[in-house]
Amino acid sequence: MLTAVTPRPRSAPLALLLESVTVAGRRLRRLRRAPGRLIGIVMNPLISMIVLGYLFQGSLSFSGRGSYQEYIFAGAAAQVGLAGIGPTAVAVAADLRGGLVDRFRSMPISRPAVLVGHTLGDLVVGLIGLAVVTAAGLAFGWRPHSGVLPFLAGLALLTAFMYAMLWVGLMLGMFSRTMETINVVAGLVTVLLTFLSNAFQSVDRLPGWLRLVAEWNPVSAVVTALRRLWGNPDAAGSAATPSLSLTIAASLGTVFVVTVLLSLRRYRSAVS
User: What transmembrane ranges does the database entry give (predicted)?
Assistant: First the structure.
């Protein structure tokens, strides 16, 4: 006589992880049909390295020693994280308006899994884009000079930065009413965070009040840390903040916590 075996219920964290991976897999499958998302992520960093590092090399400089091509690579790498804001916002907004959220609501899936899955899928796309940009940087003359472990530590920092920026994009998609608003705001955020930082120029050339903004820009902190980890040239006097590690942890942590809480709250109200 056979007895029915009742399957064990999964723990909540494990269920959330499996559901998030499932949603992320769906997001990645869409990449095969729309590879333009990956192209858009890598184009800005590649254009920055080509235009600023070569075409305008004679008109740009920084107050430090070493190659300008090596100086700007950390900024180009950080651009990969910023470039993910727009596509994530557009995808989430499209799902909300296209009825996909209603279908998820009828399924036995936890609400956070939908948002986490979106960000995990886009994080994989961002890492692929980072690999392409890194290969291009090596071809253009960039080299890490501090060994394997600092190089991997820099990649880990970039991954954390990318993931925090993906939640910024997700929050933007949740709160924006139109696609036009998303495109304008995402482009504005990307441009301001990039050029009000030390990504491509020394902040000591900026006016006093604007220099203070650039020095405390989280992008400046991340870019400075990457240059130090990889042994690349840095601008003189770039360490204006009292503690670089504390600044990075506080800024990225604050961005991550605020965007996650606001996005989850907005998602609950959208599906209720």
Answer: 36-56, 71-94, 115-142, 148-170, 182-200, 244-264
Q: Which amino acid is at 110?
A: S
Closest CA to 229 of 171, 154, 117, 124: 154
DSSP string, 253-268: HHHHHHHHHHHHHHHH
- Provide DSSP, 60-77: ---SSSS-HHHHHHHHHH
Tokens 């009828």 correspond to 106
And the tokens for 38? 């990956």
DSSP letter assigned to residue 176 = -
What is d(CA 33, CA 243) in angstroms, rounded to the nearest whole number?
Answer: 44
pTM over 0.85: yes
Give 213-225 pLDDT, tens digit per residue. Answer: 888 889 999 999 9
